[in-house]
Amino acid sequence: MSKSTPTQQLRIIGGQWRSRRLRFPAIDGLRPTLDRVRETVFNWLQFDVEGARVVDAFAGSGALGFEALSRGAKQVIFLEKHAKAALQLKENLQTLQASNAQVWAGDALTWLEQNPEPYDLVFLDPPFGKNLLQPAIEQLRLLPGALVYIEHEATLQPQLPANWNEKKSKTTKEFCFRLFEVV
């Protein structure tokens, strides 16, 4: 990462890398999932992460994917379009010596369209205000039992597939975060 790019840090909350801090670039619109939200989400997922094949679409800082890796995910694919963020994700994977993850530096929607194989857990937390959540939901091809986490603006009402059963959700003034199981 170039010295001219300001960086911020996130903290891994649980698992083998608990309390490790990772850098991410200070990019307009990049907002890592808050610690308290990640803690709630991974409490929801406590029995579902170990051994899972995970996609962290619109990865940004990679907070969700790194948390999944730390907690025993079998594989994580980070999808990130912004070149500096993708580069930092790769550097963080090297720092952690995580060989069971890869970064796809490109458009998440394109990747989802071209890679329809099923995953166990998908994180969809696109940049707010860009109308990316609905197309991402429509691109997913998941088997029964798969879990999907979505985070979106509180005012947004995405159209969800009929076979997505909401397991958990929380809403703040600004955003909603929800966990679904494919049935």
- In total, how many beta strands? 9
**Poorly predicted sequence stretches spanning 5 or more consecutive residues:** none
Shape: globular
Spatial arrangement of strands, main beta sheet: 5-4-3-6-7-9-8
Q: Which structural class matches the secondary elements?
A: alpha/beta
| Mean pLDDT figure | 94
Helix-strand pattern, N to C?
Answer: EEHEHEHEHEHEEE
In which range does the helix fraction lie?
A: 25-40%
Q: How many separate structural domains?
A: 1
Q: In brief, what are we looking at here?
A:
By secondary structure, this protein is an alpha/beta fold.
What secondary-structure arrangement, pairings included, does this model have?
Layout: E1 7-11, E2 21-25, H1 35-44, E3 53-57, H2 63-70, E4 75-80, H3 83-96, E5 101-105, H4 108-114, E6 121-124, H5 133-139, E7 147-153, E8 164-171, E9 175-182
Parallel strand pairs: 3-4, 3-6, 4-5, 6-7
Antiparallel strand pairs: 1-2, 7-9, 8-9
Give a description of the structure:
- The chain is α/β, with parallel strands linked by helices.
- The chain has a single domain (7-182), classed as Vaccinia Virus protein VP39 (Rossmann fold), CATH 3.40.50.
- The chain has five helices and nine strands.
- The longest helix has 14 residues, at 83-96.
- The N and C termini lie far apart (42 Å).
- GO terms for molecular function: 16S rRNA (guanine(966)-N(2))-methyltransferase activity.
- It is an enzyme of class 2 (transferase).
- It comes from Bacterioplanoides pacificum.
